Amino acid sequence: METxxxxxxxxDVLLVRGPASVRAESKGISVLGTxxxxxxxxxxxxxKVLPFEANEDSSMIQLTLGEKGExxxxxxxxxxxxxxxxxxxxxxxxxxxxxxxxxxxxxxxxKSTLTSYLANMALIRGLKTIIVDGDIGQGDLAPPGCIGxxxxxxxxxxxxxxxxxxxxxxxxxxxxxxxxxxxxxMKKIIYQIEEKEHDLCIINTDGYVVEEGMxxxxxxxxxxxxxxxxxxxxxxxxxxxxxxxxxxxLIILAVDKPEGVVKSPSERSERRLSQYHxxxxxxxxxSVGLRRINLNFMEDFYEYNLSEIELKEISRKLSSNILxxxxxxxxxxxxxxxxxxxxxxxxxxxxFNQNSLRxxxxxxxxxxxxxxxxxxxxxxxxxxxTLNTNFKGKFDTLFLSTIRISPNFRNEAILPILKKx
Length: 421
Prior knowledge:
seven-stranded mixed beta sheet; Jelly Rolls; Elongation Factor Tu (Ef-tu), domain 3; 3 domains; single chain
């Protein structure tokens, strides 16, 4: 590890990419809108970039870099100073009562940094803030495939320092195929978290903003009803035009996108895998009977087991060895012996091959509420599923997904869905 002190001039920004440890050696340093005191220490996680800004000349900061950590002094469009006018506009328009902000931008545009900055500014003003993280691919409050929401009780340097109080499980890492389901799940999460005392709700969204992503964001705004939408000036001009076509009650604010925050595909993958590890580490094996547990997939709730006669009839009809099946009011989820890593959907049937469950990342819950997470180790022929989980509470529902992760958290794969007419 390398330790080095930096002497910064006023308006210098030290961009630090983790892993790193930072210590303020003098006053005059701020990060995400909060001033550091002498000897304040901040840990920067691997692949996370934080801007340390000098508000005075001769500001001193000490930096210890871990493997692949980096540091760079910049004077370009970096740091939260580029948003100074934004906070004035946002909080000047803030009226008494509860307010919702929504942040829209492409992947690596700085949405999480902006969310943290606004939360810190609200905290300084004595406002009680809640954050809803709707980025199911690169989220901070919840594991991939999930929505998370939390209350802000202290200054934030990294959204991953917050502990989500409410989870919503989708089981997809992209909203492309579950746009409507995702918006409905976000509405439920917002309703739940807003029952807590608060002044402000900040909704951080996914980076899906091109092509169909425009329609997705417009639908999200209509359904979630934010008072202020904050987007980046570099966003697609067509989307910006469509945002401005909303009625006058919606405030649209366009801000600069910070430079130097782009992550490589491998870095984004590492951050996703670290989130799985965060929510699954220190797990233990647990066995559950498939016929004794409820299932949820794509918001459909499967509670009732099919009879042996029904199983034989479906096996004959599909020319498959159906091991087990459950039904909702009008849909059936099937499990058959088979090695193909694919999920098939046609008519009212959703079919999982036995092998496709191996390594699946799932949610554990009760009814419609997600309480914990697990990884499926194996489904046995006797319909017992072995899970690995650190959740110690009671649950009666498994939330299935399209996500498979390796036991050592080094790889992630997405199970394809084959739809037949």
